[in-house]
Design goal:
This protein is mainly alpha-helical. The protein is built from eight helices and no strands.
Length: 172
């Protein structure tokens, strides 16, 4: 008896593990723990996108590992400096150029560039609006196009979660 294992199935398993870690990060009261879990989720999602052959998503998540590390150490001057933010944003932009696979590559790239700016601000309200109007919709379309079931589900959960938080806490 020969057991075969489909690589796309394995990719989806890693995607759901990454999604679970990411969702767990949203439940963290401690900001450092939140960024640590996002660091781990980005590593797992990098593998997920690699296995799917979605190289823009893979590279963007590898750079997101660095971003999470910098945000984790955000209380240190070297990590919170605007040059660090701009460097990460440039890395995201350049990765989109180097992994160009048509217009679809533009969506997550733009999402990560602008998402970095909103994350660095540490302003929860503006980050939630950016998630709702830019970040999650861009990733949702990319994930759908790349066949990332867990990615689509993750962005749907993110959008619903942001809408609930806006009703609970308001936009002001």
């Amino acid at each position: 008896m020969v057991i075969t294992f489909d690589i796309k199935f394995l990719a989806q398993i890693f995607g759901f593990v990454g999604a679970a870690v990411l969702w767990a990060s949203f439940q963290c009261k401690d900001t450092k723990r939140l960024f640590l879990l996002q660091f781990i989720a980005s590593m797992i999602f990098s593998l997920h996108f690699f296995l799917l052959g979605a190289y823009t998503g893979m590279i963007l998540n590898i750079i997101a590992v660095l971003r999470s590390l910098l945000l984790y150490h955000g209380n240190k001057k070297w990590a919170s400096h605007p040059i660090a933010m701009v460097t990460v944003m440039l890395m995201f932009a350049l990765s989109g150029v180097f992994t160009w696979d048509g217009w679809i590559s533009l969506l997550p790239t733009v999402s990560m560039v602008f998402g970095t700016m909103f994350m660095w601000s540490r302003n929860g309200k503006s980050l939630r609006l950016a998630l709702l109007l830019l970040i999650s919709p861009c990733w949702l379309i990319y994930n759908f196009a790349m066949g990332s079931i867990s990615g689509v589900l993750t962005e749907m959960v993110n959008i619903i979660s942001v809408i609930i938080s806006l009703f609970r806490f308001g936009i002001k």
